[in-house]
Amino acid sequence: MYRYIDAFTSAFWGTLQWTLDSIVFNVPWYTNYFWGLILISLLVWGLEIAIPWRKQQAIFRKDFWLDAGYMFFNFFVFSIAISGFYNVLEVLFQGFGVTISSFALINPEHWPMWLQLVIFFIVLDFVQWFTHTLLHRFPLLWQYHKVHHSVKEMGFAAHLRYHWMENILYKPLKTFGVMVLFGFEPEQAYYIHFLAITIGHFNHANIKITWGPLKYVFNNPVMHLYHHAYSLPEGRFGVNFGISLSLWDYIFKTNYIPEDSGTVPLGFAGDDVFPSDFIGQNTYGFKRHKRTKKEL
Questions:
Q1: How far apart are CA 146 and CA 287, in angstroms?
Q2: pTM across the whole model
Q3: Which candidate among 1, 46, 58, 196 keeps its CA 20 to 30 Å from the CA of 10?
């Protein structure tokens, strides 16, 4: 029992200390996610102000500060809180002789770093795309994912508005994807993590970017806006599930962009009675809710 307590506390205090060290610039700049998140946010927000897609939308749009709070809560506070539990699981698996490399199908350690990073990026994004479809497909998971879809005016910070339970589902699946393919996380994976944050911010931003022919590869604000549309095509439980890459939606025929005016209403059926505050949204989903006819 002692080793589990030690594993929990060491991970918790280690993650907390790393975050505090990041705030005071006491970590390598290329792994400083605290200031990196702030810098990326300011850059994308600056583009929203300079070249807004929906010109009638205020600079401080509806729920701007709520979403800013979500960014720091989900990216740092909750990560600190949950870090100990993941470390306990790792120790538990090690007790059964299971490590992160136990299920690896390939050994890419001798590949060029650029190739490791590209494959790492693709695998993680597919796992996230697949998990995202599950959040829409199953009513229990949808209750938590409603928080992300409660956004009524889209902006960069909406990227990280999501229920903390999504971390519980996403992270183990992402870790499993790494275990199955690599058996380890590439040494320079921070490039991929910063790239994913940047693309996610752009996808939610009030900017009209489609990347030209690359729209079939990379997700974009026009495509993702329709993921948040209030009204979905008949018979669909969701569209445009891509996180960083759009190619999965084109491959599996879940893509949908009927027009690009940016004026589509956002949300979901019943969002008029959905909690509008942080506490209410993050305690939502723990009691049974029936889907309305529009949600089915």
A1: 14
A2: 0.89
A3: 196
